[in-house]
Write a structure and sequence with these properties.
Radius of gyration: 14 Å
CATH class: Alpha Beta
InterPro entries: NAD(P)-bd_dom_sf (IPR036291), SDR_fam (IPR002347)
Family: Belongs to the short-chain dehydrogenases/reductases (SDR) family.
CATH topology: Rossmann fold
Pfam families: adh_short
CATH superfamily: NAD(P)-binding Rossmann-like Domain
Distance between the termini: 21 Å
Helix content: 40-55%
Keywords: NADP, Oxidoreductase
Number of domains: 1
Protein name: SDR family oxidoreductase
CATH architecture: 3-Layer(aba) Sandwich
């Protein structure tokens, strides 16, 4: 049994341009979505005493790119 999470929202722009709606959407998809996927599958893995989880982050978690501040931050959280 396994789980791979790789969904992401990426909006280009500076922090100064980011609205609360843009930030919320990225946080919900990139971080909350990853956590919820794990939360729902983990009980089955525990019951089976088996399973693997791979949460795909991004090189941006380590090497942040300009104009991607929100995305970079969410991928650090996934990492």
């Amino acid at each position: 049994m396994g789980l791979v999470t790789s969904a992401a929202i990426l909006d280009v722009g500076t922090i100064l341009e980011a609205t609360p709606a843009i930030m919320s959407r990225a946080l919900n998809v990139n971080i909350v979505g990853t956590a919820l996927a794990i939360k729902f599958l983990l009980p089955l893995m525990i019951e089976a005493h088996d399973g693997t989880i791979v949460a795909v982050a991004s090189v941006n978690a380590t090497l942040a790119e300009q104009q991607l501040g929100i995305y970079n931050a969410t991928k650090v959280a996934v990492r």
